[in-house]
Amino acid sequence: MGRISVLRLAIIVSVACCFSLLCGVSIASAQKKPAIKLGVNLDITGYGAWLGEPELRAVQLFAEQANGRGGIDGHPLEIVVYDNESNPEKSSGNAKKLIQRDKVTAIIGTAITATSNAAKSVAQEEKVVTYSLSGSYEPSYADSFTFATWVHTSGMVETIYDYFAKKGIKRVATLCATDSTGQTWHDEANKSTKKYGIEVVSERFNVKDVDVTAQLAKLKANNPQALIVGVSGAPNAVVAKNFNQMGFKIPYVTGHGNISDTFLKLMEGNEPETLLLPGAYYIVWRELPDFFPQKKLMKEFAEAFQKKFKKEADIYAVVAYDAARVVAEAMQQVKPEGPKDSPKLRDAIETIKSYPAVYGGTYTFSKEDHRGIKKDAALMIQVKSGKFVMAQ
Amino acid sequence: MESTHLSQAVQFIFAGLTSGSIYALVALGFNMIYNVTLVVNLAQGEFLMLGAMTMISLYSGFKLPLPVALVLSTLIVGCVGILFDRFAIRPLKKPSIMLLILLTLGGSTFLKGVALLIWGKDPYTAPTFTKLKSISFLGASFSPQMLWIIGTLVVVSFVLWFFFERTLLGKAMRACAENPRAASLMGVNVKTFVMISFFLGGALGAVGGMLMAPVSFMVYDEGTMMGLKGFASAVLGGIGSYPGAVVGGLVLGLLESLSTGYVSSIFKDILAFVVLLLILVIKPTGLMKRSDE
């Protein structure tokens, strides 16, 4: 009996040791004033890892740069990183740990909608600023402590419709998935039709479908001038193949969740003649003229990231970097000492106006707007010979 | 872009036959193993995924000629089937149906994990077997891959029928399913036949996956859903019946595409499964199985 409990104790102790070693990676630099702590709750492993990984790197880069400049008004910026393994339960657990144990003043994360939603209630209960990096996350409710990046899907849809108006496209077909991303796209695409005088016919499909020709045949009957495919990732391959096979020559537009190398590789050889998606100016920063307001900022970030990680910074790294910049900007005013100062930090973010975004455009927050970025930061992107370029 | 009712109907039917044929191939694999061992192999969908992934790796990665890649992956996944039997099913001392089903479920998770390690989380797709862009028929157009899919189903069905009805080996295999003890008294080595059935089950799954990869895409966890659809087809046609598997698969595929076409694409899966339930309430043994069997 005695031996067993000793063994058990040893196991518990060693597991606890491993745990604290693995999880609480703190990056601190010794300076005189007390450090300001920024929590990072990201999907570093699991299926959201392709987003979490570049996002973590961007925050690390930011912290390094900020401390190089002398920190937040002399206070060193210390980041505390936890991996939520793309698991909603772990995500809310991490948020609690960051606030209660590590006493962070704000949290950046998470990368995907499911884990972001899980951390939402913790943010509200504890009243700590939590900045989600997920594209389809909604921060909206009263007395909110949650913030979100990306131009909202409604803004993305309007960007598409502006482009259609320019091209004289009036009859639009939509084929959206039945998952949550698809639902948002379906709703938004049908919402702003009146304003643009656009006629929309809609069909839906399951992301596990191996054939969507039945849906496309129904849409074809209405003789559409463009197709919007509301889905992220692999199911685009099925739709594009059927689309080409049925001889469609109209523009094929898909969502901003597809701005990745994986998507380009997947579509290789199956690209529709005109493949478009709404995106951010950063994606095409090399093409931008030098007088473009945020070009210098974009270039500096892209080069610093390349230099530190020997890897191209994608748009996901950019949203994380921007989130860290916004939070740090507010920290300059508040100089928070712990979670108790987070409401002041929230109020400070809400006063930020016309703050230039590496994403493209500017951030202007208010009590009602915790996204801060509007449609003017979005533009149409086209896939041409395996690359994202500005749509003509 | 003239589109008449006729050409729409033709398009719906072809769409249904394409997915239906793949369901049918998975259902045939289910029955193959079920008939000899009475095991409902929940890892059948993973055989499909492995077939597609192996084929894509051999063809696009190792640049083998397509026919070689097809044959090799069929054999490889067949052998995975054998290993599955040898290391998961056979060591069981007191096999009960529940335990066996749980084992295959575990096997399915294991195979998914292995695929995740080998191929990662990225989706892959393969080029169509023939270079033709598309074929037009009565105003509807479809991928040449569809002919391959339907053609393969016809050939596989015929070969299976011939094997079980006309060859001694096939008859012996049926005997194992009927009554394993009597069969072994007649000199049939039941263990060997269980192994053969797992090989064939794996191979059939692989064929389905390889045909499917060019029209859609493949990810490490894509097999599960196809396994479910295949299982539904097998039940619909009458579990254990080979003609039933083919009919069940095609009926399920057509149900899905016709409800997309004539009712609503959002209710397609619900409608297909409601009809499936109705058929099973009216005829619990499935479409192609007599109730006295």
Task: State the secondary-structure class of chain A.
Answer: alpha/beta
Number of helices of chain A: 13
Largest interface: A-B, 37 and 41 residues
Low-pLDDT windows of residues of chain A: 17-31
Helix-strand category of chain B: mainly alpha
Total beta strand runs of chain B: 2
Average pLDDT rating of chain A: 88
Key phrases:
heterodimer, A: 392 residues, alpha/beta, Rossmann fold, 2 domains, 7-stranded mixed sheet, 6-stranded mixed sheet, B: 293 residues, mainly alpha, ABC transporter involved in vitamin B12 uptake, BtuC, two-stranded antiparallel sheet, 72% helix
What does this structure look like?
The complex is a heterodimer of chains A (392) and B (293). Chain A is α/β, with parallel strands linked by helices and 392 residues long. Chain A has two domains: 2-151 and 298-376, Response regulator (Rossmann fold), CATH 3.40.50; 153-281 and 378-390, Rossmann fold, CATH 3.40.50.2300. Helix content of chain A is 43%, strand content 18%. Chain A contains 13 helices and 15 strands. In chain A, strands 8-7-9-10-11-14-15 form a seven-stranded mixed beta sheet, with helices on both faces. Chain A has a six-stranded mixed beta sheet with strand order 1-3-2-4-5-6, sandwiched between helices. Chain B is mostly helical and 293 residues long. Helix content of chain B is 72%, strand content 2%. In chain B, strands 1-2 form a two-stranded antiparallel sheet. The longest helix of chain B has 33 residues, at 5-37. The chains are: A alpha/beta (392), B mainly alpha (293). The A-B interface holds A 47, 49-50, 178, 203-206, 208-215, 217-218, 220-221, 223, 233-235, 237-238, 241-242, 244-247, 262, 265-266, 269-270 and B 1, 3, 7-8, 11-12, 14-16, 18-19, 22, 121-123, 125, 127, 133-134, 136, 140-143, 212, 215-217, 219, 222, 225-226, 257-258, 260-261, 264-266, 268-269.
